[in-house]
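Help!! Second protein's tokens look totally different from the first
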Amino acid sequence: RRAPDLPLTSLRSRLALGLALAAALIGLAGGVLWSVTEAKKLRQGLEERQNRLAALAANGLDWPLWNLDAAAAGALLDTLMSDPEVVSVELTAVGLGARPQSRQRKDHDGGQRIERYFNIEHGRGEDRAVLGTAKLVFSTGPIEAELRTTQRFIVGLLSAVLATLVIGCYWWVNRLVRG
């Protein structure tokens, strides 16, 4: 009569564990690759939005500064603040007693802050004149929150797949050995 096998010394247990471990490693590698790719895509999208907003602000603020229209400049600053990634915007006009204007979000969501400085120019070619400078401050908080959501999805998906594989491997190996 043979002594009972220890849980991990039987052929069936080792096969099931090996298959589950291989599936877990493949799933983990895929999850990490997916997460890194998603993070790169989100950061690239943020950089593109920063460039577009800076160009929009530079082009939109030249006429209000040229005409010394503080109300129109303030309205454009309010419009820039409607973007959830913008934490603050500051505008400093060059010239006759111009006071700096700024807007700042009260409910900053954390994340890394990225500052973007640019000149506001009026005119074209040799007639171009610098009317002021601006600073846009962006937050990586929204993309970090989206990345955390994606990572939770990946972990949940991998857990479900791994549980299914472990149960399936155990059933399949058990059936093969008895078979």
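Here's the second one for comparison:
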Amino acid sequence: PELFMALVQLGYLDNDTDQPQSAEQHFSQALETAIQRTGIRQDQGNARVGLATALINQKRYRQGLTILEQARADFASLHDGSNEGEILLLQGNARAGLGDHANALRYYEHTRYLARLYRARTDSYEALGNYAAALADFRQYIQLRETLVERMRNEQTIALRLQFDSNRRDMENQRLLAET
């Protein structure tokens, strides 16, 4: 389980830092580990979603769609719909990458990842020539993104304050212990 988790975390880090080839390697290794060692379908599904993301980020859309269908089967066997929104968003992104913007929009209608949804729909609406809808979704994306950035800043500020207070208490305790 530790090896699997380490590989998945490395894969997510690679995807987040625009290194999809490295992400593909890490998620492929994680999937192999999940199949051979853990046998846990949830792990297999999660590794497949990460792998599909890496493939889609490399513009390997058809391969990504195939892997997403396998991930959907993993989660369906567990009666787990918690990843469905992410899978639908990725399927929409892959369809848009293939130029199938009408079907991409159908996938996007069912996703729960609002900020990413609005950004992805902007591109599909623009490609279909629906500039008013593209502009409206882009505005929604900007608004949600700004809200999320502000929320993250506030959380980081709180975390830094807590860390500072904890460090200050630790130093004060050490000083008191040294005095006694």
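Reply: Different proteins will give different token patterns, so don't panic. The mean pLDDT is 88.
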